[in-house]
Specification:
- The structure is a single chain.
- The chain has helices spanning about 15-30, 45-50, 70-95, 105-115, 130-135, 180-185, 205-210, 215-220, 235-240, 255-265, 275-280, 300-305, 320-335, 335-350, 355-365; strands spanning about 5-10, 35-40, 55-60, 100, 120-125, 145, 160, 190-195, 220-225, 250, 265-270, 285-290, 315.
- By secondary structure, it is α/β, with parallel strands linked by helices.
- The protein has two domains: about 5-165 and about 350-365, Glycogen Phosphorylase B (Rossmann fold, 3-Layer(aba) Sandwich); about 170-350, Glycogen Phosphorylase B (Rossmann fold, 3-Layer(aba) Sandwich).
- It has a seven-stranded parallel β-sheet with strand order 3-2-1-4-5-6-7, with helices on both faces.
- Helix 6 (about 180-185) crosses helix 10 and helix 7 packs across helix 13 (about 320-335).
- It is globular and about 65 Å long.
- The N and C termini lie close together (about 10 Å).
Length: about 375
């Protein structure tokens, strides 16, 4: 096909948007002539991130249903109807050869409209427990790309392809970036460093646990690169002030994530699907503190896929305040355990996910 036309739809969180952009970039590498359009949800993060990555995006007025009874939920049927109408119009005007859904609100109406018109479709599920949109779409699509084994519990087995999650490419070959990372964060290259990340909004339990153990971390001569999220940044800055000369650094958000991974000897993180995938490729010894309120406790399931292979450690959210800092200090001091975890996690990493998914999308355009 001379110029395949492809719609990529979904978003709402970085965990949906970054894979979507990675897939689009991989399609462009294989087929520079491909015409790619994104469809997202108005007011959501993708409306800003996708144009920044160089792609056109159209927003649907879709919203999610709140789990509790709210007045907002009364708007849902109207917004859904308006989104379906707009999605049909987009399909009619753009005439895609294939559509890709990455989960999130917008992919539901768009893929429903596309499959109804007989357009071949693929969905990419990032988690070990699928979101409701992808579960509903599974019957209608031709291919389902997943990041975890055992997903035939949720999806038709014959449609599943185990690909892993597409992640940003700059986290490969980190060793070469270590010195630049040390300079970027203003660290001492002879000291051990722990990276703490809790997602863009921060993670309350992780933040409180680290805050309570700052003195202990500094006493053990450990440096800290601590992404607090914007809600905790002032409190964290106050706590670390006495330790400014000890290499204890806080920031609301880390833009140079590749540098952060490069300097880290040990990482503390939530267990969202993309974090687990990135840390597997970075091959970093990680202590996961899964978010207990995640749907069907899927963060614990994501983390356990590694923990069961001695490829990560897990601290329960409810126990983090008592045990997280001691666990991270013990791991920093045990280089043999770090090495073993790194080796084991590297074996589980999928390094070419975006490329494999792009191949599947391009195959669909030829049908």
């Amino acid at each position: 096909m001379s110029q395949p036309r492809i719609i990529v739809s979904g978003g709402g969180t970085g965990g949906h948007i970054f894979p979507a952009i990675a897939i689009a970039n991989a399609i462009k590498i294989k087929h520079p002539d491909a015409k790619i359009l994104f469809v997202g949800a108005l007011g959501k993060m993708e409306m800003e991130k996708v144009p920044a990555a160089g792609y056109e995006i159209i927003g649907l007025p879709i919203m999610g249903l709140q789990r509790r009874l709210t007045l907002q939920n009364l708007k849902f049927p109207f917004k859904l109807l308006a989104s379906l109408t707009k999605a049909k119009k987009i399909i009619k005007e753009f005439k895609p050869d294939a559509v890709v859904g990455v989960g999130g609100y917008a992919s539901g109406p768009l893929l429903k409209a596309a499959t109804k018109k007989g357009v071949p479709a693929l969905i990419q599920e990032q988690n070990s427990y699928p979101g409701i949109t992808n579960k509903l779409l599974a019957k209608k699509v031709q291919k389902i790309c997943v990041a975890y084994a055992g997903m035939d519990e949720f999806f038709p087995k014959e449609k599943i392809l185990l690909t892993g999650n597409p992640v940003r490419q700059d986290i490969k070959n980190l060793e070469a970036k270590r010195i630049r990372g040390i300079e970027h964060f203003g660290l001492d290259e002879n000291k051990k460093t722990v990276l703490v990340v809790g997602g863009s909004l921060g993670a309350r339990t992780i933040n409180h646990s680290i805050d309570g153990g700052i003195a202990k971390i500094a006493e053990n001569n450990i440096q800290l690169v601590w992404q607090t999220g914007k809600l905790y940044v002032d409190e964290a800055a106050k706590s670390v002030k006495p330790y400014a000369d000890k290499g204890i650094k806080t920031m609301p958000f880390i833009t140079k994530m590749d540098y952060a991974y490069a300097v880290a000897d040990v990482v503390v993180s939530r267990a969202g699907a993309m974090s687990v995938s990135e840390l597997s490729i970075a091959a970093k010894p990680t202590i996961f503190v899964p978010l207990p309120s995640a749907a069907e406790d899927h963060q614990t399931k994501n983390a356990m896929a590694l923990v069961n292979n001695n490829a990560a450690k897990l601290v329960k959210d409810s126990e983090a305040k008592e045990t997280l800092v001691d666990t991270l200090i013990a791991l920093v001091k045990n280089e043999q355990e770090q090495e073993q975890i790194s080796k084991n996690v590297a074996k589980l990493a999928f390094t070419d996910s975006a490329s494999i998914i792009a191949d599947e999308v391009l195959k669909l355009t030829q049908k």
